[in-house]
Amino acid sequence: MMKPSTLVRLAAVGVAVTAIAACTPRRPVETGTGEVPPPVGPQYPPVNNGNVDGGNLGAAAPGSEQDFVVNVGDRVYFDLDSYSVRSEAFPRLDAQVAWLQRYPSVTIRIEGNADERGTREYNLALGARRAESVRTYLIERGINAGRIDTISFGKERPIAAGSSEESWARNRNAHTAIVSGAAR
């Protein structure tokens, strides 16, 4: 019979191994041809540099939250188990940089999100890395770090319901939320 202290040590080792395995990124699935399939995810519409018009919407007031969301874009998407900013997101993030430089009193919060797969802890850590990746991108392009906070919501705030690849792809994102300094 094993001593209780030995059982506790074995349990601790098991928990540590499981935690490390949960945080290890998965390799992309190979197609057999040596090529990795292209990423699946939401497509970015072109950045709109004008006002919104049509219907009863009217125009977004320059410098407002609506201006940021509609004319710049407030969300970028990530590949499965990744926190690297995809090249398709660069134009949107560059537009965020330009907008934030135009309105220097605005402060933001980058909210990292994940899809429903994986443990709560893993997804919180992944969301934090995604938020930090976007924050780093903005800071490297001249936005003052003091204007940017980050938070991870993991899988707790999905924007797309369902358990399909399309829903999961939409939920793997970083959302830039205006905290202060812009009209609502």
Task: Report on the architecture of this protein.
- α4 links the parallel β2 and β3 (148-154).
- The protein contains five helices and four strands, in the order ααβαβαβαβ.
- Residues 52-56 have low confidence and may be disordered.
- It has helices spanning 4-23, 65-72, 90-102, 120-140, 165-171; strands at 75-77, 107-113, 148-154, 173-180.
- Helix content is 38%, strand content 14%.
- Strands 1-4-2-3 form a four-stranded mixed sheet.
- It is an alpha+beta fold.
Query: Which spans have pLDDT < 50 for at least 5 consecutive residues?
Result: 52-56
SS summary, helix count? 5
What is the CA-CA span between the terminal residues? 67 Å
Strand content: 5-15%
Overall outline: elongated
Rg calculated over all Cα atoms: 20 Å
Task: Briefly say what this structure is.
The protein is of the alpha+beta class and 184 residues long. Helices cover 38% and strands 14% of the residues.
